[in-house]
Amino acid sequence: MPDWQNFQPFIVSGLALGGVYSLSGVGMVVLYRTTGVLNLAFGAVGAMGAFLAWSLINEFGWPRVLAYLACVGFGAAVSLLYGILVGPPLAGRDPLVKAAATIGLALMLLGAMSWVWSDKARSMVLPTTTWRHTIGDVQINWTQIIALALGVLVTLVTAAFLRLTGLGTAMRALANDREITAALGVPVRRVEATTWLVSGALAGAAGLLLSNLVGLDAATLTFLVISSLAAALIARLRSLVVTLLAGIVIGLVNALATPIFSISPYRDMAPFVLATVALLFLARHQQISFARRSS
Q1: Among candidates 186, 177, 192, which has minimal Cα distance to 83?
Q2: Which of 22, 20, 11, 60 has its CA nearest to residue 244?
Q3: How many whole angstroms from its chain centre is CA 260?
Q4: How many angstroms separate the Cα of 226 from the Cα of each of 21, 51, 136, 139?
Q5: What is the crossing angle of helices 240-256 and 225-234, to 10°?
């Protein structure tokens, strides 16, 4: 077992990854609560946006800020287009069918990335990575700070938005009953399109941060959605605050397992194990509560 000093750098990286998992999880929860779609292409959308930003910087000489905005804009545009073209025909279908449709989008984007950017390894270095602080024996860069802070900020702002604004109220109403909400005069298509747009922008931001934190690799970034999905499932696709906390815990557990299972795939099981334990515990609690009400 490594000593405490060996774990300290992994705590920092785990908090940063947890912030991005929370950011992605919040985007998935809001989209699911509004449209009923569990977007399994979230990671692929962010990954392709990050590759696009890399190409704009290194091959076309774009300013970094514009390339980063293009990454976020790409995620927003692709998600909005998917929501407009595919969302309405699937509106009345089962959640499983809707989720399977997003897998098709993920595979198409992954195939495009493998075809266009498969010739050599690439890395995305954000300027904030070179801004470092030392706390004790641990170096912390601003990318890690931004990743955690952005996850917390987006969660709090989104929760306030859903409670305090008219559009947020419409989103919550759609989550409860789409037909009744439409009958009350709420522009359902417009609300859903806005949700797809915002969720896609969060996917682009998450992909940009993860491309720096874990590397610019199409498959890795695409399937990191699993950790975000685990955070959303622990929150039962409802609570944004629980999604935030679950994402941070998953990031920490996965990172802290690295010095123990340094070259083992077992540490990648952390999201599945945590999600399974949490769901079993919640299901047990729900059964007990139901039994008490019945008695």
Answers
A1: 192
A2: 22
A3: 26
A4: 9, 20, 33, 28
A5: 130
Q: Provide, for the chain, the percentages of residues in helix, strand and coil under a 3-state DSSP scheme, each rounded to the nearest 5.
A: 80, 5, 20
Instruction: Render pLDDT for 244-286 as a digit per residue (tens, 0 to 9).
Output: 999 999 998 888 877 665 555 555 666 666 766 766 666 665 5
Architecture of domain 4-294: Orthogonal Bundle (1.10)
CA–CA separation, 162 and 276 (whole Å): 28
Q: How confident is the model at residue 36 (pLDDT cuts 50, 70, 90)?
A: confident
pLDDT tens, position by position, 150-203: 999 999 999 999 888 888 888 777 766 666 766 667 777 888 899 999 999 999
Q: Which residues have CB under 8 Å from 156's CB, separation 6+? A: none
Supply 178's token pair.
């789409």
* Spatial CA neighbour of 51 closest among 107, 120, 124: 124
pTM for this entry: 0.88
Measure Cα distances from 119 to 50, 115, 155 in Å: 16, 9, 38
How many whole angstroms from its chain centre is CA 182? 29
| Neighbouring residues of 24: CB distance < 8 A, sequence distance ≥ 6 | 42, 43, 46, 202, 203, 206, 225, 228, 231, 247
Q: What is the mean pLDDT of the chain?
A: 84
Could you tell me if 167 and 36 are in contact, meaning their C-beta atoms sit under 8 angstroms apart? no
**pLDDT tens, residue by residue, 101-146:** 999 999 999 999 999 988 677 888 888 888 877 776 778 889 999 9
